[in-house]
Fold this protein.
Amino acid sequence: MDTWTVIILLHCFLFTSFVQSAPVGLPSNLPPAFRETAVEAKTLGEKILRDISAAHAATVKDFSLESSTSNLQIMAASMGIPSSPVLKALSEHFTLDVCVSRMLAGVQMYQNLLEVLSSKASGLEDLRADLRDLLNHINKLKEAAQLAADGSAQNPGPDLASHLQDSYSVQVALHLTLTQLRSFGHDLNRTFRVLSTCRP
């Protein structure tokens, strides 16, 4: 096999790999406003991750942000703290519509949890304000892409307030909520990074 044949075959292989790596679930006709909003949402998402660190330092004294939560998961379930919606790479099965629905549901869920916790602890105000802004940005993504995504049906109100009976339960709830939100925030930012690379 001569050199030119090898080069041509290599180019074909690389091109095929590039095409296959493109997110299948991302429509090709998205308007410029979609990408602009995704870029803004990613910037806001990065700020939210900083807010989470600050909020944890201000409100949680019994655990560090890096403390394992594995031994607290039974308490999380009993206190009514749900798991974050799962975000995956876009594909024909995990479409943009599904992705935005889960982003909306997750951000709304954490807004609700933090609203309950803010009655027991101060220091969550900036985080709550930025989550409200992020929810607005995700709704703008939905509108720009003309999606029917709706996270409300997947987001029952958390039954948390009745379980915050003492300072330890408040500390556990704050720690679990903020650590889960941080993990979900990283997933959101990875998604925004993909969405911000789309071209109209």
User: Anything to note?
Assistant: Helices lie at 3-21, 32-59, 73-79, 96-117, 125-144, 167-195. Residues 4-22, 153-157 have pLDDT under 50 and may be disordered. The CA atoms of residues 66 and 177 lie 13 Å apart.
